[in-house]
Design a protein that fits this description.
It contains 9 helices and 21 strands. It is α/β, with parallel strands linked by helices. The structure holds flavin-adenine dinucleotide.
């Protein structure tokens, strides 16, 4: 509970205020306006000249995939939000497109807009929060809202028509999908994972608990199954062919297979390779800056910030915002350092009929009842405090 409580306290505090009235506002480019980049841009837009570069004209969150498949309308309210609804982005320029290259010495980026135009843009500070691809729900496609909606509806229809569903992968996404689909009824849901227990990276107590929950909710669990991923396939679509296993079991045929195998591919190809680790994630120091380039930050799933690369959920955006504000204000204050707990934490199953259960790094968990979680957590905390206020349309 401490992580969430301290986050609320921190977000409500106004310690970030700096006076830029007498100075020219520095140009801050935020590359990627996903879960992390959007939070950073909203907090800097008034004091800096923020240019946000986004592959879509809306925040399309990769969070809570289970809810997205079973309660899409509720999910959309919090996790698919056009940027024009963010009051705190009014002062920012949001470019629909992608960052194509960065010249770190010249402090310049090349931006490819969705309409095909190219633009070169100088920056004083650059924040890279371009995330990573790991399935059909999280990618770097440049697309408009109509395409996002068409894909959402198509995937949900394909899953809705299935009577047997295979979910491959025992991480947080696979768990969330399998459990929510099983609870929704309408299909037999089989969860395949390669270890003896699901949820690697979570506290052992959480891993035992989730097994009991999945079984109680009707998920048929198949441990010790390592799927053979078809050559060249990245898990970016549903499949319908039988799945084979390198662990020796017989093939499994489902109407639909959802791949959540965590084959994460960082969106970092626009950076020179010395800035990246062996897997392509961006190397950062304790202050979330690229070594040798103190004006460039990387945060979220693309940043090699800790072994679990968990700076998105562990409030890495606060570190970046605080450090940028300290630096821009020319204060001699020590910069904030980022640290992450040993184990993952967060909501695994999303909002359920009895509320929202959050598992903690120490293996404990707490549940916020639905009657309070929906208005207080989603409407007040996420929409007002985290997003900084949303217009109704
Ligand atoms: C407050 C908070 C709470 C969280 N709670 C949980 C939780 O309870 N449970 C849980 O499992 N996880 C949680 N998470 C974490 C979440 O699962 C992911 O880690 C998070 O979605 C990753 O965010 P990101 O900004 O790094 O990437 P994304 O949200 O994927 O955003 C990256 C964006 O950059 C775009 N992009 C890619 N390439 C380019 C380019 N070249 N130019 C411009 N844009 C580009 C992408 O298309 C995408 O829109 C939480 C995250 C946050 C912020």
């Amino acid at each position: 509970m401490r992580s969430l409580r301290s986050a609320i306290r921190f977000s409500l505090a106004s310690e970030y205020s700096i006076d830029m009235s007498s100075k020219t506002k520095p140009i801050v480019i935020v590359a990627g306006l996903g879960d992390t980049g959007a939070l950073i841009a909203t907090r800097l837009a008034r004091t800096c000249q923020v240019i946000g570069i986004s592959t879509r004209p809306a925040l399309l969150s990769g969070q809570e995939l289970g809810n997205r498949l079973t309660e899409p309308d509720d999910w959309r309210k919090t996790y698919l939000v056009p940027y024009r609804r963010f009051r705190k982005l009014d002062a920012a320029e949001v470019i629909h497109g992608r960052i194509a290259s960065v010249d770190l010495d010249a402090k310049n980026v090349t931006i490819e807009s969705a309409d095909g135009a190219q633009r070169s843009q100088r920056y004083d500070y650059l924040v890279i929060a371009t995330g990573a691809s790991n399935g059909f729900w999280r990618n770097d496609h440049v697309e408009d809202l109509a395409k996002v909606e068409t894909d959402l509806i198509a995937v949900n229809a394909e899953i809705g028509a299935a009577s047997t569903i295979a979910v491959i992968g025992g991480g947080a996404t696979g768990i969330s999908v399998a459990d929510n689909l099983a609870k929704a009824g309408g299909a037999d849901v089989h969860l395949f994972h390669s270890g003896s227990k699901p949820l690697p990276g979570y506290h052992p107590k959480v891993r035992s608990w989730i097994g009991r929950v999945l079984t109680a909710d009707g998920v048929i669990i198949h441990p010790d199954h390592r799927a053979i991923v078809p050559e060249g396939f990245t898990g970016d679509r549903l499949t319908h062919e039988p799945v084979s296993w390198s662990t020796g079991q017989s093939e499994f045929a489902a109407d639909v297979t959802i791949w959540a195998v965590g084959g994460v591919r960082p969106h970092s190809g626009f950076l020179p390779s010395p800035m990246l680790d062996d897997e392509g994630f961006i190397l950062v120091d304790d202050n979330l800056r690229i070594p040798g380039h103190p004006e460039v930050y990387a945060v979220g799933d693309v940043a090699a910030s800790d072994p679990l690369r968990s700076s998105a959920r562990n409030w890495g955006y606060r570190v970046v915002v605080a450090n940028l504000k300290t630096t821009i204000a020319g204060k001699s204050k020590k910069l904030e350092t980022y640290s992450a707990p040993e184990y993952r934490w967060g909501s695994l199953l999303g909002m359920q009929s009895d509320g929202l259960t959050v598992v903690q790094p120490n293996g404990k968990r707490f549940r916020i009842p639905r009657w309070i979680a929906k208005p207080l957590l989603l409407n007040v905390f996420v929409e007002r405090v985290l997003y900084g206020g949303l217009r109704s349309r």
